[in-house]
Amino acid sequence: MGNIIEIENLNAGYGKTHILFDVSLNVEEGTICAILGPNGSGKSTVLKTIFGLTSIYSGTIRFKGQDITGMKPYKIARLGIAYLPQVDSVYLNLSVKENLMMAGYILQKDELEERIKYVQEVFPVLKNYMERKLITLSGGERQIVVMAMALIREPSLMMFDEPTAHLAPKIANQIFEKIKELNKNFNITIILVEQNVKKALEESDMAYLLVSGRINYYGSSKDLIANEQLGKLFLGL
């Protein structure tokens, strides 16, 4: 398979605040790619930049060969990219069903109903929560809803920004299992920014290490786990 995302010499940030410096990054279709690094290294900014949420000073971003550099987020979403931010991207005072309906607002009614049935098969636990408001759910349950909302749109690429943050280890493992399921059973490419470095490396195929907004390492996740110097210096392994 070819690359689903190709980033070349990307310089980006927020307004005049320069965060990413000459970042080049390729993600092969059908894989799980981890982006790791110390706090403040620019990991989340990579995802936001792909999704059109930052200022791009130079460089290019291609999705399936199409140049999406500087494209508006709603257009990027329609191409098949789902971005799941670290902060709540749900409507807390609406029910699970209403959140799913909001996620599929561009779909025809019949198609939306079919997609809602579909995501309940992928995430069976949702069947118990459809009428409950998001504000009454736990962090892990909300994360499942966020994943289901993204899946409603049938993306080919899903970008997760610290999906297990603030979750108990048991729940975090369940989220990782669902991410692996989306990748292997539904052929969705995954880009994963994750605070649990060891787990992210165990579950991913490739990894990029960002330090101060620059790529410090890229290669197989297994090789990064085995690199004691980088692991101790930047990742706490």
Give structural attributes.
six-stranded mixed sheet, 237 residues, four-stranded antiparallel sheet, alpha/beta
Structure description:
Strand 9 and strand 10 (about 215-220) form a beta hairpin. The model has no long low-confidence stretch (mean pLDDT about 90). By secondary structure, this protein is of the alpha/beta class. The two termini are about 30 Å apart. It is built from nine helices and ten strands. It is about 40% helix and about 30% strand.
The helix tally amounts to 9
Q: Note the beta-strand portion.
A: 25-35%
Give the overall shape, derived from the CA principal axes: globular
**What is the structural class?**
alpha/beta
Tell me the total number of β-strands: 10
Percent range of helical residues: 25-40%
Low-pLDDT stretches: none
Encode the helix/strand succession as letters. EEEHEEHEHHHEHEHEEHH
Any idea what the radius of gyration is? 18 Å
Largest sheet, in brief, is: 6 strands, mixed
